[in-house]
């Protein structure tokens, strides 16, 4: 018969997400965000995030069920993000997921947040090609992975950021440019009216002697700081935003496509919040087309944190017959990749 309907819950940062997935199909979803409450502090405040999750979690689960036209009793398994993320924020989602699993008498699955970002793409484009290159670009991670068989083979980890993540770079640079939090979407918007060749920002770690798949973004943030200092109050924000976005998109896509070429991989999957960036998407499309590589990027709403991506992993685990997590499973705020 049909696989069970999986309820997925995400609460690792500032988004409270819930969604229902069955057999690789998204049935319904809902999302609440505490983003606006953090804006005046310029970044996510963990205590505020936890409290917001606590208020939102019940309503968000009910809204996801309503969106799917389902009742709680229809849920056959529960999946929840156990890490990495903010400890208190994760604990709210995990406590809720345990309660649902226990009261419904259905299995509980702990999900790695980054596996969720990768699986998000399967809801839009079907099973991942085997092998595929995966570029994960979020607020906390920038990693290039060679994925041969998600279920069986371990993942080959080709490179990471040595300092800031790509999203972190956008968030910090936005602050320097006087743009609101979160910085990524604000820079994307400001860049529309800017000239991407106006400022010659560096392309870190792209020299012939540099590690080919390592990333570094803290120098770019410093370059933006120098640029704004040098111009006093008279920075052309659109030009700076467009130029920074061009530099980040250039480095990310150049390395990802080079990795596809070196390893003979014909598909690139770009996921995580920064995959929502318009220039990352267009430059990746250009360069993949030129290299004969198939590009897969989820629609923007599935790139940033959401419940559907967690439900998608739960659905894969259920169908693979993976063992369920015990009801005393703990959060793992610094879960390794
Ligand atoms: O994946 P995500 O929602 O949360 C984490 O797991 O970190 O990613 C959030 C990050 C933030 O740094 C945000 O500024 C960035 O993704 N982001 C963007 C865009 N939308 C979100 N960066 C650039 N352009 C965007 N359109
Ligand atoms: Zn994320």
Bound molecules: 5'-O-[(R)-(carboxyoxy)(hydroxy)phosphoryl]adenosine, zinc ion
Using the alpha-carbon principal axes, give the shape.
globular
Query: Count of helical segments?
Result: 11
Strand order of the largest sheet: 3-2-1-4-5
Number of strands: 10
Distance between the termini: 34 Å
What is the number of independent domains? Answer: 2
CATH topology of the largest domain: Nucleotidyltransferase, domain 5
Q: Indicate the percent of residues in helices.
A: 40-55%
The CATH class of the largest domain is identified as Alpha Beta
Low-confidence runs of at least 5 consecutive residues: none
Major β-sheet annotation: 5 strands, mixed
Binding site for Fe cation: 113, 117, 305
Enzyme class: transferase
Cofactor: Fe(2+)
Protein name: tRNA N6-adenosine threonylcarbamoyltransferase
Secondary-structure topology with pairs:
Elements: E1 5-10, E2 15-22, E3 25-33, H1 35-39, H2 46-68, E4 75-83, H3 87-104, E5 108-112, H4 113-125, E6 132-137, E7 142-147, E8 156-160, H5 166-176, H6 183-191, H7 218-230, H8 237-263, E9 267-271, H9 278-291, E10 294-296, H10 300-303, H11 308-319
Parallel strand pairs: 1-4, 4-5, 6-9, 9-10
Antiparallel strand pairs: 1-2, 2-3, 6-7, 7-8
Helix pairs in contact: 2-3, 4-11, 5-6, 5-7, 5-8, 6-8, 8-9
The structure holds 5'-O-[(R)-(carboxyoxy)(hydroxy)phosphoryl]adenosine (KG4) and zinc ion (ZN).
